[in-house]
Amino acid sequence: MSERILTGITTSGIPHLGNYFGAIRPSLDLANSANESFFFLADYHSIIKVNKPKEVAISAQKIAMAWLACGLDPNKTFFYRQSDIKQILELSWILHCVTSKGLMNRAHAYKALKSETDDKGINMGLFSYPILMAADILIFNATKVPVGPDQTQHLEMTRDIANKFNHTFGEIFTIPEALIDGDGESLPGTDGKKMSKSYQNIIPLLSTREELKKSILKIVTNSLEPGEPKDYSTCNVFKIYSYFADNNEIDEFKAAYEEGISWGDAKNKLFELADKHLEPIRDKYFKLESNPQDVIDLLDEGGKKVMPMAEDLLCNVRESIGIT
Ligand code: TRP
């Protein structure tokens, strides 16, 4: 059976190196192999947490451009906005009606917030977020869904919901599998904690050379002097370097640590390597940014291509539940 890869990107925040190594690169590798692929901007997911319209719009634009700059080929991959496919919202409601509330009560994302705030400030979108995600996936009969480890439970819920529906109304949905990529998760931010917008420790993916340098200089190190041997295995500069480097470069960098490289020089080496790697992405990004309408058109077209597929599936779903 041919595989259909599908993944969504929540349009909040600006893309950083953690997103690049954790999501963008592994998903593009999959898309560029012989699979059929569907990548979309999960813009209706973003309003669960963000209520600043400008931020939502800018983030969607930057994220779309980041994926294109990193090599997403819109002739090979269906690339669209969730909000353009109204069938997803219709399916989401139908799935709400086969999902038990208890399943949503158990969602980690909801449970974590609930115990902090006792439901205060939790909107129903956050509570039923996994159902919208299930609709995103099931509407296109995806077989494989590449996601980060934090999404494992959501994929299990999607499978649960799909099985429950199929069992009740007939075999409509393909049961998808998660492809978990944990690699980017361990990329540390400038303070050593996991790189994340909420910790304000990110190194942006799309920045000028100067901005890249600035954020690399912020990486926290210890106070060992130049000439003193340093432990690479616990060093954030080294960890980030190793994401960009090949084996030879890693061995050389290890040796430099043992020989007592200064923190300034170590950061500079990281900067030069990262910059070399990111330069083509940056160039492409700035080109896209000078013609934002092209990206808007491209997403409009992507939506038009996939919409009929969503409508076909939804027709079957409606019929199966007796809404004709
Ligand atoms: N919830 C996902 C995240 O935050 C984004 C997402 C929305 C998604 N819908 C999806 C991922 C469907 C995969 C498939 O990362």
Q: What does it look like?
A:
The protein is mainly alpha-helical and 324 residues long. It has 2 domains: 4-186 and 292-321, HUPs (Rossmann fold), CATH 3.40.50.620; 207-286, Orthogonal Bundle (Tyrosyl-Transfer RNA Synthetase), CATH 1.10.240. 56% of the residues lie in helices and 8% in strands. The protein contains 13 helices and 5 strands. The strands form 2 sheets. It has a 3-stranded parallel sheet, with helices on both faces. The longest helix is centred in the last third of the chain and has 30 residues, at 292-321. It is globular. The relative contact order is 0.14. The model has no long low-confidence stretch (mean pLDDT 94). Bound molecules: tryptophan. Tryptophan binds next to β1, α7 and β4.
Layout of SSEs?
Elements (H helix, E strand, L loop, with lengths): L3 E7 L6 H16 L3 E7 H4 L6 H17 L7 E5 L4 H11 L4 H5 L2 H10 L6 H15 L5 E4 L4 H18 L7 E4 L28 H9 L18 H9 L2 H12 L4 H27 L2 H30 L3
Helix pairs in contact: 3-12, 4-7, 4-13, 7-8, 9-12, 10-12
The chain binds tryptophan (TRP).
Tryptophan binds next to strand 1, helix 7 and strand 4.
Care to give the gist of this entry?
The chain is mostly helical and 324 residues long. The protein is built from 13 helices and five strands. The longest helix has 30 residues, at 292-321.
Shape: globular
Report the radius of gyration as a whole number of Å. Answer: 22 Å
Instruction: Give me the strand/helix succession.
Output: EHEHHEHHHHEHEHHHHH
CATH T-level topology of the largest domain? Rossmann fold
**Bound ligand species:** tryptophan
- Name the CATH superfamily classification of the largest domain: HUPs
Q: How many β strands by DSSP?
A: 5
CATH first level of the largest domain: Alpha Beta
Mean pLDDT: 94
How many structural domains?
2
Number of helices: 13
Share in β-strands: 5-15%
The CATH architecture of the largest domain can be given as 3-Layer(aba) Sandwich
Main beta sheet strand tally, sense and closure: 3 strands, parallel
Distance between the ends: 31 Å
Q: List low-confidence stretches.
A: none
Main β-sheet, spatial strand arrangement: 1-2-3
Helix % is: 55-70%
Secondary structure class reads mainly alpha
